[in-house]
């Protein structure tokens, strides 16, 4: 660790996830999709009716998860440049902090690129203090200090006027488990250094292409964490016989960006049953996967028939097991997708499933002519 990194690091001030904001072409439609398909509740709206002239935002909540979807209302809006370049995508990975100014100053002093100098948003409920620095691609990290704000989410957002609640079976997503970024070929080391040396995160795990590869494509991945609930794997493409799925993402998204959001549940059988009933489409492992996994892990006391019927993947590590399943991309460009995960002690990311998962992704890649 460098001498600079020995001073108070931003990570020490990050207390958890605040929210994830998507910049999209049609916020109303994306909000409706996330509510109807994924069981989120639209809890607040900001737009011209609430005094925000140039954009429309919907806040969606489920458990402790907060997602905001925002679209621009004028052609001059920077949101449209982002959407033109990337399609719909996650623009802001926002963290709760104990001091937005001190966190920003610590990050910038250590080499972070400033995006939003510390600023305040006020209303009758108090003052919300914010700042932001850049991370990979056009993505940023906003630091959100809610200590002196008793209002709801952010000034400008109101509970009035949100669409009627969607109906459907309860999904039961509880929190953000991890958020994965895809970065440029050859730059994984730089981005890991950014999170370690600038942000003060630590490395949790590293996988290389010998652990994550199929016959056709490969990737390298390093997981960084602030040690207080924020966990962010970073992927870069590695050479394979064909185009890495990470390279397909980067080509399609036109640069690095958020690959997937993993949401935790305490009951994945209920969650996946409900999501399937709501029409969510998942990547499918083949029958061979379930023959193999039941042979390897059949000693685990799990509802195997239900898991197989619902297509839920199972992984096991010395510290426990995990159950997971990945959706198809949720945007028109094949970029960002969602993972549903239930942890039974395992702290990993489903390494044992990566090969099965990637073969499934590659079947979709081949259908798009990108393999
Ligand atoms: Fe994941």
Number of helices: 10
Query: Largest beta sheet: what is the strand line-up?
Result: 2-3-4-1-5-8-7-6
SSE class: alpha+beta
CATH topology of the largest domain: 2,3-Dihydroxybiphenyl 1,2-Dioxygenase, domain 1
CATH class of the largest domain: Alpha Beta
Hetero ligands: fe (ii) ion
Radius of gyration: 20 Å
> What are the secondary-structure elements, in order, as H or E?
HEHEEEHEHEEEEHEEEHEHHHEEEH
- Assess the beta-strand content as a share of residues: 25-35%
Largest sheet, described in full? 8 strands, mixed
What does the average pLDDT come to? 92
Large-scale geometry: globular
Corresponding CATH superfamily of the largest domain: 2,3-Dihydroxybiphenyl 1,2-Dioxygenase, domain 1
- Helical fraction equals 25-40%
Corresponding CATH architecture of the largest domain: Roll
Task: Write structural notes for this entry.
With 371 residues, the protein is α+β, with helices and mostly antiparallel strands. It folds into two domains: 3-145, 2,3-Dihydroxybiphenyl 1,2-Dioxygenase, domain 1 (Roll), CATH 3.10.180; 173-368, Roll (2,3-Dihydroxybiphenyl 1,2-Dioxygenase, domain 1). Helix content is 27%, strand content 34%. It contains ten helices and 16 strands. The strands form two sheets. An eight-stranded mixed β-sheet has the order 2-3-4-1-5-8-7-6. An eight-stranded mixed β-sheet has the order 10-11-12-9-13-16-15-14, with helices on both faces. It is globular, with a radius of gyration of 20 Å. The two termini are 40 Å apart. The model is unreliable at 1-6 (pLDDT under 50). The protein binds fe (ii) ion.
